[in-house]
Amino acid sequence: MNYRFFWNQIIILIVSISAFVQLSIMAKAQEKEPAIVLYSTQNTKISANVNAIETNLSSVFNIKEVKSVHAFDKQNIKSIKNIIYIGEWEEKLPTVLTDTANNKQQRLLVFGKNIQQFKTFSRWKIKKTINIRRINQTSLKRPHPVEIIQNTGKNEILMKGYDLNNSYPLVIKNDNNYYFTSTELQNMDIYSFSKLLADEFQKENAKHPVYILLDDVTPFTNAKKLHALTKILEQQGKPYYIAVTPVVSGGDNKSLRKIQDNQALLKVLKEAQSSCAMIIAKGYLGSYDLNSNTVKMEFWDIKRNQAVTAKNANDAIVLKSETDFANEKQYSNYLKRYKKEEEHYTENRLSSSINELGLNHLYPLGLEIPNYGASNVTYQIASQHFSTMFGKVQYSNSSNDIGSPLFVSKPDFLNSMILYPVTVQMMFEGDRYPFEKVMDQLDQIANVSGSAIGVSFSTSIDARYLSKVLNQIELLSNIYWLNLKEKNNIVKTSEIQITQKANQKLDVTFNYSLIDRLKQSIKDQPLEMILWILAIVVLLFIIIFFVNVLRLRMVLKKRLFEERRSNG
Amino acid sequence: MANTLFFISLSLIWIMLLYHMFLMQGGYRHFSTFERVIPKWEKNMGDLPTVSVFIPAHNEEIVIAQTLQAMSRLHYPKEKLDVIVINDNSSDRTGEIAQSFHEKYSFIRVIETHGENKGKGKSSALNEALKQSDGEVIVVYDADNTPEKMAVWYLVMGLINDPKAAAVVGKFRVINAARTWLTRFINIETICFQWMAQGGRWNWFKVTTIPGTNFAIRRSIIKSLGGWDVKALAEDTELTIRVYNQGYHIRFFPKAITWEQEPETLKVWWKQRTRWARGNQYVVLKFLRQFMTLKRKSIIFDLFYFFFTYFLFFFGVIISNVLFIINSFYDLNLVIGNVALVLWVLAFLLFLGEVMITLSIEKAEMNVKNFVYVNIMYFTYSQMWIVLVIYSLFLEIRRVVFKQEVKWYKTERFSQKDKGGLK
């Protein structure tokens, strides 16, 4: 008996150890290699291209730092296995960098200029700049200038660009190092660029995360239309996401309409949330300038194409440029004031969004920025409230330069927020061939291993298209449906904390007094508050009236008796 | 646009409802206190004034006998009482019946209207009686009224003890309340009107409207005012304003009670109420045009109340109803959400509360049957008023535009004996 028990224990132990070893190997295989991003730009500040490249590469590398070449410190590179250099500005690179790179301890990925300063590429010649019109089979929307590299020897050309007659190398692999002839490759053809990243740097054939984002739900959304969409997703049992803007400006732009003003909609949202849906906060009011009829952006002053400068759009000013100041310090001091305004504004809007949704028992698990317009300040403040973002990102801090990677990413400028990109374009109402366009995009994404299939579906579009899209997605292989309920996630303000621990029940903690709620309501909707006060006063009077009715009823017999007596 | 209209209608409706809520509170206060003065006032009822009771009657053969029967039982020294039936161009047995009472009771007499006052309506008939009487106090009753025994006594008591009062107004009750669904509604309506509008306004502002019946006025004052306005369809409201403008007030003293007959058919109700509504619209427009010259602030306020009632409030209700219907088929994206629904429910509860408290004041009126009627009333009888006011406004505008002559509609009477009178 004891002998048998002993062998059983041994077998269990062996199985356990082998399982543990296998898991460790798998985890290591999935672990991204650490990398550092260095850049050369005209003003030594991070540019849109740097952000874009970093965003894309953050899906295949674990990027530890993003800094100017001049801030490079050899001490911090010990654990780094990849140096990513983005040469946007021609300059002499610090010797400490070229020496480190020449030691060949790290893999080198170089974008754009200054390539010859690295020993690996020193023999290459940059001949001239030409305009390419096509990458692989994809025609570019507009010709893009790239530098022609010659004398590349027997190195492998991973991607080619074409003008009308000839082909030119765009990405060249030299041993284990890579050269990208442009810092804008991701803008030219995101699919080819992403496929290259997947093929070269992913450890294995990764699955496609799939998520459907029912977008643009506002207090004006038709509850029936939304219900038709949620019903389709519920029937298929798929996890999905609903991006909600909790408050919008009323038709007259003076009053606000809140999500609770549309009870039918609120009911649909709550039902969806209690089933397969997860709520994504899409700003608070959805727009910075409430009077604007153009693209609505809440965290970017699209009218002036600059960051938000005042709480009220009517008080916004056009920011001066650096050249208007004698030195950088003066300019920096000038910007400080507006940055403070923007911080205050952003904090207020994001907190209000979470609080408003929370008070209506809609608990957001992520953020989608309205029309994706955002500055560095937006991302910095957002990261204090959210750990997850959906949609696209604005790469530049000085212009509305928007894009998104094809992979789930964690770029440095999002301050540790995870970005689940929208990769399948929103289908607009009135689009003649909405389904065909989506199919094209799906085909291209499916071609890139591990890319995200993030579909943003406007709630104004007919529900039958959603069924079609779902059917098409189901035909794709190697996919899994993203479920944030199976991940750790946190959304918080000083008044509310929404904590999702993997596969556990959502935990919501309120730290919100009635007075706080009242103050907020008075601030947001003074007219409605007056009406509520009126309702309370009227209710008090009604109570007094009914008490008097009861009182008279109780003394009725006495009164009838007195009347009989007085009548004789 | 829809939102703006919605806010306008909401404001108009709720200003009115709040004012009524406030009046109801005043009405209840008045109910709780008005009797306290009676023991003290009784002591001053030694030297009583002579009283002329005017009963304008045009073809009132169905009701005049019971009215005069009630007059014969009035508690007031008969030597100081002069009950005058003003037989105004009757083609039936009104004069004959009244004459038979004169033969039995010397303090009841019949006069006929003459010349310019003949067949011109109530105001003309009253002016005729004013000429042919000399009582220090004039009391007016409609021909379908059966005042309670003490009614005239209390009206005179009010005048003797309140020197500032030009007139004292009593309370009227519906004699045929149990007859039809319509008279039940009217019964509830009249009880509510008297305690809320009459009692409430008296309590807060010392303002009461002369109701056309069961009121006493000093001869000296009605003479100085030149009698009744023969052009006015609502001669009572018109007289009220002129009295206040003289610097007097009108006391509401609900101890003086009369029972009157109300329309039993919709047709009669429609005609009678159209006359009232048009009459009030006429008065409002007449005095609003000259409100700068009015001396008493309280009556200006009251005129605005009437203006609100017959113009703005109904305008608000109509907008609100139109928006409700449109919004049921097409989403107008109204920004006010739950609170509008809450206010709608509260408006209904407020209506219930107000009506039920007035019914409770009238003791046995707060019964299960009336409770059911009150609930139905909000959605039926009250809504009928909206149509009626619009129609009246249309007639009044037409009258002004085409300079038509005012026709005084005499309310059709119903025999109480055949059908079994009181409930």
Description:
The complex is a heterodimer of chains A (568) and B (423). Chain A has helices at 2-30, 48-57, 95-102, 185-188, 190-201, 223-236, 263-274, 328-359, 376-385, 434-446, 463-475, 514-524, 526-554, 556-566; strands at residues 33-40, 61-68, 82-87, 107-112, 125-135, 138-150, 156-162, 167-174, 177-180, 208-217, 240-244, 247-249, 256-258, 277-281, 364-368, 388-391, 393-394, 402-403, 418-421, 453-458, 479-481, 489-492, 496-500, 507-510. Chain A is α/β, with parallel strands linked by helices. Chain A has three domains: 32-201, Rossmann fold (3-Layer(aba) Sandwich); 208-516, TIM Barrel (Alpha-Beta Barrel); 525-566. Chain A has a nine-stranded mixed β-sheet with strand order 2-1-3-4-9-8-7-5-6, with helices on both faces. In chain A, strands 10, 11, 14, 15, 16, 19, 20 and 21 form an eight-stranded parallel β-sheet that branches. In chain A, a hairpin with a 6-residue loop joins strand 23 and strand 24 (507-510). In chain A, helix 12 packs across helix 13 (526-554). The longest helix of chain A is centred in the middle third of the chain and has 32 residues, at 328-359. Mean pLDDT of chain A is 86; it is low at 19-29. Chain B is 56% helix and 12% strand. Chain B starts with a helix and ends with a helix. Chain B has an eight-stranded mixed β-sheet, with helices on both faces.
